[in-house]
Amino acid sequence: MGVYHRGSRAVQDRVGVRAAADHVGRSIGQGIKPVAAAFLELQPLLVVGAADPATGRVWASALTGTPGFVRATGPRQMSVTGGTRPTDPLAAALTTPGTSVGTIALDPRTRRRMRLNGRLRRTARGFAVEADQVFSNCPKYLQRRHSYETVERTPGQPGRGGELSAAQAAFVRAADTFFVASVHDGGADASHRGGNPGFVRVDSPRELSWRDYAGNAMFLTLGNLAADPRAGLLFLDWATGTALQLTGEARTEFGADGERRVRFTVEEVVETPSAVPLRWSPPEFSPANPDPPG
């Protein structure tokens, strides 16, 4: 498959960065290089995005394990030991062979991140992804968390709803990081968004929005949303392990001043207390973060 599809090309052309995107796009390959393989084996967290095969709704989920639970097992293959809980919205997708998945391994300790997108197949110990796209991103807007500890936690029963509660809205407003899953005809993607607390606005219990900060000019996420508005968001409490998963549709608004704002309409909310057995140290905010609007 090509590096870019029509959705990404449309956004690149609108913003006037096609040449820059072509240059950056040369970094996207299908192979997992030794440095990438070594990075994967150090990670206790992997975020996966996909569409539920029954409902078509797009979700992002957090998978965790002892470092080594994610590893390269071939020139183009990443294997994951374990999977999601049966109550996770992505449980069916991650047990369905051929599912298009997007993954991102993000290490707050080093402010490095790696994305691998491809097709899933079942294995005896979990699942594997045959890579179509493998690439790294710069550390821009990524908060540093110097250390983590693994703690004994029993995930709570997921709470479900059709809109954000007051407490969930406060959780979103306080976030400095979230993950976004998106899809297109040829696959899926999982990406990261970061900023100072307040960078995500809660405009109503069923609508969020955030400014799209200047990035690498590829516009993979915004390109996916231009072709298919379905999206999934994942917010993590880096201290308590609570996971807040949202699914809905997202559209990009292009301002006359060149500012871009993504507007997300909530269709379903899933909140799981103590979902992630990792307790991270407090953040050191990225110097690249713009101040959130007042």
UniProtKB/TrEMBL annotation:
Domain of life according to the entry: Bacteria
Region span, Disordered: 275-294
Domain (Pyridoxamine 5'-phosphate oxidase N-terminal) ranges: 166-264
SUPFAM superfamilies reported in the protein's UniProt record: FMN-binding split barrel (SSF50475)
One matching Pfam family: PNPOx_N
Annotated protein name in UniProt: Pyridoxamine 5'-phosphate oxidase family protein
Organism for this UniProt entry: Streptomyces bullii
Native organism taxonomy: Bacteria, Bacillati, Actinomycetota, Actinomycetes, Kitasatosporales
